[in-house]
Amino acid sequence: MAKNRHNLPQLSGSFFLSDGGMETTLIFLEGIELPxxxxxxxxxxxxxxxxxxxxxxxxxxxxxxxxxGFILDTPTWRANADWGAKLGYGRAELDAVNRRSVDLLVExxxxxxxxATPCVISGAIGPRGDGYKAGNMNADEAEAxxxxxxxxFADTEADLVAAYTLTNYNEAIGIAxxxxxxxxxCVISFTVETDGKLVTGLSLxxxxxxxxxxxxGSPQYYMINCAHPTHFAQVLKQGEAWxxxxxxxxxxxxxxxxAELDDSTTLDAGDPLxxxxxxxxxxxxxxxxxxxxxxxxxxxxxxxxxxxACAA
Length: 312
What we know:
Elements: E1 16-17, H1 22-29, H2 46-66, E2 69-73, H3 81-86, H4 91-112, E3 119-125, H5 139-154, E4 160-166, H6 169-181, E5 186-190, H7 204-215, E6 221-225, H8 229-232, E7 246-251, H9 258-263, H10 272-285, E8 291-294, H11 300-311
Helix pairs in contact: 2-4, 2-11, 4-5, 5-6, 6-7, 10-11
């Protein structure tokens, strides 16, 4: 039975940390091959599982040291039908790997959770296509496509599902509807280009408002991920209602555009202290941003710097 599904503690107003750029850390810092940028393939071996446990533990130690909550996201951003097929995973295999991923996080929660560090298990969902390109599904197609993965998570101890790096509001609507049909709390996280807009040209405000309108505001909150704060800080205006729906950030370490990152063969880890200061400014201006982690190029050092800056 899910522990927090009906009472998500991150909604109480306390800071919760999450992890950083899982795939970039494993590939560039640990030298692990991830075909199709898919971390879930590591769940197929004992060695791979241990790599993932070691990865999460570094962040959990930061959370425990700072007495903050922690969001444990499964390594399943790519574990959907189209990406799974490229890797030889059919529906049954994907169902199994999504379940095993939750089981791994349950083990970690049992080991690391304390009263001061509550841990929430989140079933991570990624876009059907490339996270840097515009998807072309309508909302009904997206709901049907993502329903299987969400239904799997609903049958585990996952507390919620979180869809990251979305580029199209229609896909977000479909995911939110599928989550509601499975009675799962959901979080929607958009990525933006250097101008603060989705790759389709839609503003972040329009995307959030369209999803809320189409779903009756069913997402628990929204996040921004896979973009540097300099790409989106300028479009966030204090006092506007839509910004109060943004509950978290998982920014990139690098100020490079998505196109530049796609072409890069080395890791741009940016400046953890500078990133922490930018998070500090954002969370002071927008105090509902309480779930804080990283994305491409970030690791536990960045999350520690973010925690130190924002706690101060």
